[in-house]
Amino acid sequence: MDLMERFLRHVPLHVYTFSSDFADHSDADLAPMPGTVIVFFAHNPAVLKRLRKALSRQDNKALLKLRSEVEEVRSPRPATNTDMAQIATQSECVFDVRYMGRTILTNRLLPDGDLLGSAAVSWTGGELDDDKFSIVEYRKRECNVPRLHYLAYKRAPFLSALEQSLVDRIPPDISEIHLGVRSPDPTRTAREICRIVERAAKGAARTRTCSRQFDVLEDLEKAIKTGQISPEATVRELVKARLELMVRTLAPKGENE
Fold this sequence. Notes:
Elements: E1 7-12, E2 15-17, E3 36-42, H1 45-57, H2 60-73, H3 81-90, E4 93-99, E5 102-108, E6 117-122, E7 133-139, E8 149-155, H4 161-168, H5 188-207, H6 213-225, H7 231-250
Parallel strand pairs: 2-8
Antiparallel strand pairs: 1-7, 3-6, 3-8, 4-5, 4-7
């Protein structure tokens, strides 16, 4: 309710492409993960300039130094949703990230003392229109002076041939389903995949041989081409799987940025 009474400011968001060939050897935890679009934000644009320079050069030393500075001044994370809501109410600027009119990240903010913030959304690797990304700020005061500055990257996942064939079938006008997680409605997709795998398992049990993996994949590809499997529903499931993988990867560190 507080945000509804605030002043809106629309900010274009340029998205850079980060190479998926990058070796993930950095301990700084600042490089974009494969299969994500990540937005960095800071009060001081010089911080983002340092980050972009370090990422473009794959400079692990510079990334570690910046990460150390970020951790030194980081505010304690709110323990409850009520605490988070109170912080948002007090913040001068809260923002959403949108793609093609759809909000993909919501109610993000950076405490005054923090150096750098980030927020990531899962991405299937399907085609995106980079010009369709934007920021919507909710400001306490009507002012065109930037309160926050933004830097965004997308990094494609490593896709199997079957996954690539699925994302390639999605029309550009509904490319927003490549981003974020939407719990898919019950579809024939999962049922059809289960039917194919079950048939292969029964055949293996009957003949007492292991079914060859590429036979199952050929059946899946045939089901996709003949419309038995919905590409849209499957891509939504793929987005959800990527998000769950991202969460599991970050979980040992204690929090998800």
